Amino acid sequence: MKTSRPLHSDHDLPMNPSLHPVLDFEAWGTAAGNRLRRRPYPFDPGVRAEDGVLSRDWQIIRQREIAHIERGLSWVEGQAITLAFQKTRDAQDRVTDIEFFLQAQDGALFLPDTTFMAPLSRPNFVRSISPDGAFALCDFHDYPLVACIEHPILFLGSHPNFGHWIADYLGKLLLAELDDDAQARPVIVGLTQGFHAALLERMGWRSDRLLDLAARPEERGRILFSDLMVPAALPYSIAYRYLRDRTGSGDRTTALPNKERRLYLSRRNLTPRHRVANQDQIESNLVRIGFEIVEMEAMPLATAQTLLSEARLVVAPVGAALGNFIFSHTDAELIHLVPSYLVAPSETEDLFIFFKRYYYPLLDRLQFVLGDTSDDASPLPFLDRPWVYDWRSLDLAILNAEKRLIQRQLGRRP
Question: Out of 122-136, 241-255, 352-366, which region has the weakest mean confidence (pLDDT)?
């Protein structure tokens, strides 16, 4: 990583708390030193403009997806962009995540890791945010300038969760397929775990083309870029199609194998909210009707993708579903075991729309089976508890999936 003195000398001085505008991607793209660019997507993902059978929440998600597609592929080319980063460590002192925050030349902030849950997920340089979310009071005193990179860089970022990294980050590399300038640039990533590296290498991005911030000695800091290209997140229907094509996952041009392979993706060894409380009952019943029980996290990427491309039916709980569903055969049926509060309309509408939007491109072959908890109180404080799933509901979903597979084989859409 080439370093030098910063382009503007005041970048490395201690800063008192100061007020900064917080902008969405479109507005941040027009901040000082930035240029927002667009181009049409290279293919039509086939999102239907009208669908009277969708429930209200799915209609909202569909409308947002269409609007996102119509905006086209967007990216920012910026000069003197500062990237603030910080590491997160677990009880064993291992780096488990790196968060990124981007600041334009005029101080305007773009916070790519913001979610609906809170303006920022962990303590950082933001001391407070205005009620309307338009301004942030920031103190960069503990985020010293640690490097200045003078050659052109492409910003990708990372996420420790396999599914969210694929859905929200990896698809941004489509820009490098379409733009020669982007293709020639090294890529900024965060925590590069095994699955990050394996997928990136499969897509032609070797480790010598990656700038991995997890390898830096600093726990937090700022890096000044003289020339940074920042792609916007893709619509999910575009991202999934691109990633499937780029990694050679099974699609409708390749018929499902003759094998009757049906998979249950177990998550016994992960956090409680990713486990099924009555796992033994669910797994024994699934084995009895011909399912294979597999643990994808312990499996090499190539083996996992082969399994998924051959399966006609995939059942998975939260935490094992999204990334694996994306790489399943496009004619396979999918059943997702999810806590009821994530998909049931309620006063937390933003929550279930935020969750379900990832699954819109899979909707024509996806079913949800809802889990419950024995607690009478709101489930939201109990996210780290396993959830109970009714076998009869899952069995009915499997029967419905088999029916839809037969209809599809006969050439009729359900």
Answer: 241-255
Instruction: List, as one string, the DSSP characters of 117-171.
Output: S-SSSS--SEEEE-TTSSEEEE--TTS-EEEEE-S-EEE----SSHHHHHHHTGG
Which pLDDT belongs to residue 90?
79
Domain ranges of the chain: 9-235, 262-409
Is the separation of the CB atoms in 357 and 342 below 8 Å?
no
Split at pLDDT 50, 70, 90, the class of 374 is low
DSSP string, 234-252: PPHHHHHHHHHHHHT---T
List Cβ neighbours of 392 (8 Å cut-off, separation of 6 or more).
Answer: none
Instruction: Express each pLDDT in 52-90 by its tens digit.
Output: 677 888 888 899 999 999 999 999 999 999 999 888 887
Encoded tokens for 159: 């996420």
The three-point CA angle 394-397-403 to 5° equals: 145
| Pairing mode of beta strands 95-103, 388-389 | unpaired
Sequence-separated (6 or more) residues with CB below 8 Å from residue 209: 186, 187
Q: Determine the 3-state secondary structure of 19 from DSSP.
A: strand
Q: How confident is the model at residue 312 (pLDDT cuts 50, 70, 90)?
A: very high
Determine the Cα angle at 110 with ends 107 and 112, to 5°. 155
How far, in Å, CA of 330 to CA of 313, rounded? 11
Contact 327, 249 (CB under 8 A): yes
pLDDT digits (tens, 9 = 90+) for 204-227: 888 889 988 888 899 999 999 999
- Residue 312's φ and ψ, nearest 5 degrees, are -90, -20
Query: Quick one: fold of 262-409?
Result: Rossmann fold (3.40.50)
Whole-angstrom distance, CA of residue 262 vs CA of residue 78: 48
In this prediction, residue 116 carries a pLDDT of 33
